[in-house]
Every structure is written in structure tokens, then in C-alpha cells.
Amino acid sequence: MKRILLYTLLTLSPMIADDMQKAEYFYLTHGCQSCHGMYGEGVSAPRLQGVKEKVLYERLKNLQAGKTRTTMGSVMISFAQSMDENMTRTMAKYLSTLKTPENIEYYEEDPNEDGTS
Ligand code: HEC
Predict the structure, then answer these.
(1) CA angle 107, 32, 38 (to 5 degrees)
(2) Nearest alpha-carbon partner for 56 in 47, 65, 27
(3) For 44-79, what is each residue's pLDDT tens digit?
(4) Each residue of 80-110: pLDDT tens digit?
(5) What is the distance between the alpha carbons of residues 63 and 84, in angstroms, rounded to a whole number?
(6) Staple partner for 32: which of 1, 27, 45, 110, CB 3.0–4.6 Å?
(7) Rounded to an integer, what distance in angstroms lies between the CA atom of residue 16 and that of residue 90?
(8) Using CA positions, which residue lies closest to atom 8 of ligand 1?
(9) For a substitution probing ligand 1, which of 79, 84, 88, 98 has the most ligand atoms within 8 Å of its CB?
(10) Ligand 1, atom 14, residue with closest C-alpha
């Protein structure tokens, strides 16, 4: 029994990783990061980090049905609709794993800039 379980895990895990990569690729190539941030930290759009997969999925389904949660929400409807059911599920899972890497420094000063211009 244990052996079967292990075998299933080993064969399934590359598939899961592959799905996560697809979602990441979609997220970074469809403009999602421009509003939600590279790590879902939230720029001009709601922060996605730390939101549960189930909640993200439900919000995406609502948006696909045209139901928004904030006053600026309508910009998100077409983005939500650009994902098929499979991608919506995978995206919710992917987004729920997002974290800002600890070693990243924001707003680093440009070493060539002397600050006088
Ligand atoms: C033009 C800016 C913009 C872009 C680009 C964008 N979003 Fe959004 N997104 C929003 C706004 C605004 C909301 C809030 C929607 C609402 O009020 O219901 C939102 C909501 C969401 C939500 C629900 C979270 C919540 O708290 O409401 C998810 C998940 C999401 N976006 C994922 C994505 C994905 C995936 C993409 C790319 C395919 C994307 N977004 C592209 C602006 C954007």
C-alpha cells in the first residue's frame, strides 16, 4: 500500500510542477503582474498573497460571471474570462503559493545617480 502511494506521488508530482509553471508563465505573460505585482504583493490591484486557494478560485469565478468586489473591479472581468476552467483552478492554486522572496530589496538606489538631477 505504501509503495503504491509513493509511486502515485512520484508520478503525479512532475505533473503538478508542470501545471504550476504554466500558471506562472500565464501570470507573467498576460499582464497580471503589472497590477497585482510579480509576487502577488498588490500594486494597483488587490494583494493576492496569503489568500486561500478556495477564496481565489471563488473570486475568479465571480469575476468571470461579471461580479466584482471593489469599485475598480470591472477591469479584472476580461482578465478572469481569459482563463479557461482548467487555468482558473491552476491559477488559484499557483497564486495561493506566492510569497515575496526575502532576499529581494525594493527601491534600491541607482549607484550611477548622484541625486542632483
Ligand atoms: C488592469 C489591472 C489588472 C490586471 C492586469 C489583472 N488584474 Fe486581477 N484584479 C484587478 C482588480 C482591480 C481586482 C479586484 C476585482 C474585484 O473588485 O472583484 C482583481 C482581482 C483579482 C483576483 C481576486 C482577488 C481579490 O481579492 O479580489 C484574482 C485572483 C486576480 N485578480 C488574478 C488576476 C490574474 C490571474 C490576472 C492575469 C490573467 C489578473 N488578475 C490581471 C486588477 C487587475
Answers:
(1) 30
(2) 47
(3) 999 999 999 999 999 999 999 999 999 889 999 999
(4) 999 999 999 999 999 999 998 887 776 666 6
(5) 13
(6) 27
(7) 9
(8) 76
(9) 79
(10) 73
